[in-house]
Amino acid sequence: MKVYSIYILNKAGGLIYQNDVNPGLTKLTANDYLVLAGTLHGVHAIASKLSINIDGMESHQESTANANSALLVSGRSQDANNNKSGLQSIETDLFNLYVFQTLTGIKFIIITSPNPGELKKSYDSANEVFKQLYIVYSDYVMKDPFYSLDMPIKSFLFDTKVKEFVT
Amino acid sequence: MSDDIILPSATSMSTLTISDVSRTGFGYNPSVGTASNSITSETSNILLNRKTISLTPTSANSIYDKNVSSKKITEISLSSLSFLFCEIVNWSHKNSKGIQDLETRLNGLGYQIGQRFLELTKLREGFKNSKREIRIIEVLQFIHGSFWKSIFGRAANDLEKSQDVSNEYMIIDNAPLVSRFISIPKDYGNLNCSAFMAGIIEGALDSASFQADVTAHSVPVDGYPSRTVFLIKFHESLMVRESLRFG
């Protein structure tokens, strides 16, 4: 799996980082990148609202009341509205797109070469990239005093580190 | 006109009781709004019955209670150090009038650490092994070696003497600890946050009666983007002292 491009979206859906790490994709205009980011953000949000709700609203209310004790016991959020991964991947003949949303609402998006193999395997390798990306983001963006939250990322150290693990 | 205090979670204090039922349970829920912070029987139950671990440092082997002269290496988290330093830079930046001023402020903060840390390093060397460096080259080797090791965990990468100017020396660190995660934006010119570390060196040298001005300069090379040269410029009087003592 070859990573073509990496996008990072802030929690409002604004594009804060875009890097074509490997050649292969046609360049878009700066405006188109922003539109693409915003669209993905919206689709992700809508997709997370799609859910099978057999028991109706009442049971839903009950489940949120117990959500916190469940959260404290298991350490995992089971609330239907919290951090649901609405859209995880888009697969086409020409590229695959994977989305990963952190608990704080930042979205990492990677566009990779299509890999017509085992589906789970490509998920795993995408997750490995996301893990690395998240680590590098937390280190080189969050610990940079010259970065202001939700603004475009201009750190060159971050650039270098990202290039290191995708190439 | 009544002066009722408006509480964020309820209209008045009296309505906020332990039996208040929150539909959403524990914690703040933005979809419900501020009311979600009120205490319910469920949440109070969780809070009262949950087993907790005390984070207050009371045990004898906590980092706060260790003997200061202990030779055992004490480690702190690089992340917390980085976040603290990040905030130090932000705070100094907010108060400063310009890039030069920001560097001076960082230098000043480091200076006090250097003065104190020299004392601590000497104490940890032990009374028998410890000696006072009286030559410039000796004190520089001490700073470059054991002082650097005790404060940053490893010796600095290089120690050089300027060929043109007799009172200038350079300590080179390939990846300074405090600015490992920092990238300086282009419009900040040649600002280097390791000015803080330069301050530490300056404090230690001054405290050891080697008056010097120390500045940090970025000299990146391949593979080490944050490589920094600490330029140490000793005062003229010191060079006179050195020549009187050792000819």
Attribute tags:
heterodimer; A: alpha+beta; Beta-Lactamase; 5 strands; B: 247 residues; alpha+beta; Muramoyl-pentapeptide Carboxypeptidase, domain 2; 2 domains; 4-stranded antiparallel beta sheet; 6 helices; 4 strands
What would your notes on this structure say?
With 167 residues, chain A is an alpha+beta fold. Chain A has one domain (3-48, 85-166): Beta-Lactamase, CATH 3.30.450. Chain A is built from four helices and five strands, in the order ββααβββαα. A five-stranded antiparallel β-sheet of chain A has the order 2-1-5-4-3, sandwiched between helices. In chain A, a hairpin with a 5-residue loop joins β4 (96-101) and β5 (107-112). The model of chain A is unreliable at 57-62 and 77-83 (pLDDT under 50). Chain B has 247 residues and is α+β, with helices and mostly antiparallel strands. Chain B has helices at residues 41-49, 78-95, 99-125, 136-152, 195-207, 236-246; strands at residues 158-161, 168-173, 212-218, 228-234. Chain B has two domains: 13-49, no CATH class; 78-246, 2-Layer Sandwich (Muramoyl-pentapeptide Carboxypeptidase, domain 2), CATH 3.30.1380.20. In chain B, α2 packs across α3 (99-125) and α3 (99-125) crosses α5 (195-207). In chain B, 38% of the residues lie in helices and 10% in strands. Chain B is built from six helices and four strands. In chain B, strands 1-2-4-3 form a four-stranded antiparallel β-sheet. Chain B is globular and about 85 Å long. Chains A and B meet through α2 and α4 of A and α1 and α2 of B.
Number of domains of chain B: 2
CATH topology of chain A: Beta-Lactamase
Largest interface: A-B, 22 and 28 residues
Cα(first) to Cα(last) distance of chain A is: 11 Å
C-alpha geometry of chain B: globular
What is the number of strand segments of chain B? Answer: 4
CATH class of chain A: Alpha Beta
Mean pLDDT of chain B: 81
β-strand amount of chain A: 15-25%
Oligomer: heterodimer
By CATH, the architecture of chain A is named 2-Layer Sandwich
Q: Count of helical segments of chain B?
A: 6
CATH class of the largest domain in chain B, please?
Alpha Beta
> Which of globular, elongated, flat, extended, rod-shaped describes the shape of chain A?
globular
InterPro entries (chain B): NO_sig/Golgi_transp_ligand-bd, TRAPP-I_su5, TRAPP_component
Subcellular location (chain B): Endoplasmic reticulum; Golgi apparatus, cis-Golgi network
Organism (chain B): Scheffersomyces stipitis (strain ATCC 58785 / CBS 6054 / NBRC 10063 / NRRL Y-11545) (Yeast)
Function (chain B): Plays a key role in the late stages of endoplasmic reticulum to Golgi traffic.
